[in-house]
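=== RUN LOG ===
request id: a7f3
mode: sequence -> structure
chains: 1
length: 185
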Amino acid sequence: MDRKIFRLAIPNIISNITVPLIGLANIGIAGHLDSAKYIGAMSLGVTIFNMIYWNFSFLRMSTSGFTSQALGARNLTEATSVLLRSVIVSVSLGVLIILLQYPIGQFAFRFILSGEEIKGYVEAYFRICVWGSPAVLTMYAFNGWFIGMQNAKTPMFIAIFNNILNIGLNFTFVFGLGMNIEGIA
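=== RESULT ===
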């Protein structure tokens, strides 16, 4: 019994440790740019998306729960159906966020921005990152499904790969192509 718990817990812990590493890498790269405004803008942009995505954490949790129930009942057809439904909901919600990006952005900027000096940077970061909403929410669904299927290693490997890819693309876009905040986004 303990081995089964550790087999799920250890990869899950490692996955959760990698989450803030993306932000640390982004801040580290922004810190090497010519203005502290980039760090402030990126931090505010990340805060906006954290608030948005936190509202959709039910995708991971519900997918995990329903998948576990189907797996426990040995109903793989239902487990696959749970994933399909979750992906459809995730993509739909992600597209809705994209379609509503202007009012969402205006609402968030009104409450989060304290001055005009970084507004353009925050808006640029937001307008680029918003296009990843369907992918982010779909990853919530897949992570929940894998965990519900008693497979915590796949989400761990995906999280590690995302970190490596993020760092590589940040270096390429920011230092190779000179894209500043847009490259970090």
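=== NOTES ===
The chain has one domain: 2-27+37-184.
The first helix runs from residue 2 to 30.
=== END ===
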